[in-house]
Amino acid sequence: MFLVYAFAMGNKRTSAARQAAATSKGGKRPLWPLLLLAVVLWQAWGLLFPPPQPVSPEDTAGMDPEVFEILEDKLERAREDPRDGAAHATIGLVYEANKMWDEAQRSFANAVELEPGKSVYRLHWAVCLRQAGDVAGGLEQLKRLVADDPTMMAARQRLGRALLQAGDTEAAMVEYRVVIAMAKKRLEGYLGLGECLLRLDDFEGALEQLEKARDIDPEYGPTQYSLGMALRALGRREEAEVALAKGLQWEFSSTRYLPDELSRELSHYTVNFVGVIESAVEMINTGRAQEAVTVLNALHRSRPDDTTVMVNLAAAHIKLDQLEKARSMLDKALKLKPTEFAIWLNLASCYNDMGRLPEAETHVDRAIELAPKVGRAHFIRALILIKSARLEEAYDALKTCVRLDTRKADAFDFLAELCIRLSLADEALGHFRTSVRIEPDNLVSQVSLGHLCVRAGLKQEAEAALAAAQRLNPDYASGADVADQKTQALAARITAMP
Question: For residue 245, is pLDDT > 60?
Fold first, then answer.
């Protein structure tokens, strides 16, 4: 035992001596074993937890060649370093810009997996989730993002919009108030809060917020439309009609969202045809019609015979009050597609705005020949005929319109008012009844219905209309505006009924 122990001790002394000698010579312990261990561990980690692979497009057959070319470059970069979250996010942006929502949300999911602390990746993931159909999942991600990063203005607005769409108006108002506090010179918060107040029937409050949004950008379609709804509910009919006309001028009005740090890069990847058209329409609807003209002119040069481009370019010219340019472009489109309903109808509207009523009528009649069951065409024909003081013919056109489009309360209101001008009080009563069934929160329609009921001796129905008007306009006793005065007059007339 003594010999073994002594031998062991001897070995230890020898080893220690060698180490001391090495140290005394200025040597260091070799690092290659540690480096080798690190490499082995890294390889083992990669085998156990492989990085996400970049998302390739599901269908390349119908893909725009420019989009495919951009994607190939971005995919190659991500394949070289699949652990680079920014590479996956860039792929997601290309998909998002070109409305390929499923591929976009999966790409941003990869980016979030690799860089979970990057708020802007989480924002775009949530947005693309909702667009891809997972509305609830996207909402949940927005809630978590705002909880983690409450100062992210773009996320607060997106969450407000999502909550409003989900019916949680009170929670949406909280988000929009935060947006206003963060960005007092932007319209998005005021518009969102105004839409919430409209939903809650607080028309005065909505009007206050919407007027602030309008003052920031008078040309933004969604603001004008919501403003018109508030004005109409308050009985300010003439002002409402002007605002609604501005809001409805562009059928594809889109919501304007606050920018984030990826917004500029996102816009650079909008290269496919549909994406460019939608981007141009958004420009038109957000007061940037001149930018849309620039974009669409470039697209028109590469696609000189594409009538979709020409019609949208004409719409941009109309927005800029360049009616002759719009007419000229639509005429060219018509030569390429002489049986295209939309071109004839847009030309009719253009001629109507120019005051060239005979030409407007010719074009709307041809549009109706091409698509006789589209209610909007008959409505535009009625507008043209009213300008021409041909009320009976306008009446026939509106009757056809409401028969084809049975859920448009405005069309029934318009028809009811025309019936009154034509001394058709009983029929007007029926049309106002239909209108308030479709849209019971229309103050002006309720008051008009009440007055017609008084005239017809229908006291109980008149009282019901008055009750609805009082609910919509509880401060009518002040007599501050025309709606108040008409509501007061209705109450007085009902009181005087036997």
Answer: yes
**What's the CA angle centered on 190, arms 160 and 143, to 5 degrees?**
15
Domain boundaries, the chain: 65-248, 422-498
Q: Specify whether the backbone of 99 is left (phi greater than 0), alpha (psi in -120 to 50) or beta.
A: left
Whether the domain at 65-248 and the domain at 422-498 fall into the same CATH topology: yes
Instruction: Please tell me the distance from the alpha carbon of residue 294 to that of residue 252, in angstroms, as a whole number.
Output: 19
Quick count: other Cβ atoms within 10 Å of Cβ 278? 18
Going by C-beta distance under 8 Å and a sequence separation of 6 or more, which residues neighbour residue 312? 277, 280, 281, 284, 292, 296
Q: What is the C-alpha to C-alpha distance for residues 204 and 425, in angstroms, rounded to an integer?
A: 32
Q: What is the C-alpha separation between 30 and 19, in angstroms, rounded? A: 12
Tokens of 101: 């929502």
Residues, the chain, total? 498
User: Measured between alpha carbons, how far is 228 from 241 in angstroms, rounded to an integer?
Assistant: 7
Count CB neighbours of 195 within 10 A. Answer: 27
Which tokens go with 77? 């970069």
Question: Of the CATH numbers 3.40.190.10, 1.10.8.60, 1.10.260.40, 1.25.40.10, which one belongs to the domain with range 422-498?
Answer: 1.25.40.10
Answer whether 220's CB lies under 8 Å from 236's CB: no
Q: Could you give the C-alpha distances from 216 to 210, 223, 402, in angstroms and in order?
A: 10, 10, 36
Q: Report the chain's C-alpha Rg in angstroms.
A: 33
> What is the per-residue pLDDT across 186-202, written as a single tens digit (0 to 9) for each?
999 999 999 999 999 99
Nearest to 444, CA basis, from 228, 245, 249, 246: 228
- For residue 381, give the 3-state DSSP assignment: helix
pLDDT digits (tens, 9 = 90+) for 254-298: 678 999 999 888 877 877 677 788 788 878 877 788 988 998 998
Question: In sequence order, what are the residues at sequence separation of 6 or more whose Cβ sits closer than 8 angstroms to the Cβ of residue 23?
Answer: none
Give me the amino acid identity at 477: A
**In terms of pTM, does the model score above 0.90?**
no
> Residue holding tokens 């696609």?
303
Structure tokens at 372: 């006789």
Q: Per CATH, is 65-248 categorized as 1.25.40.10? A: yes
Least confident of 165-174, 220-229, 415-424, 446-455: 220-229
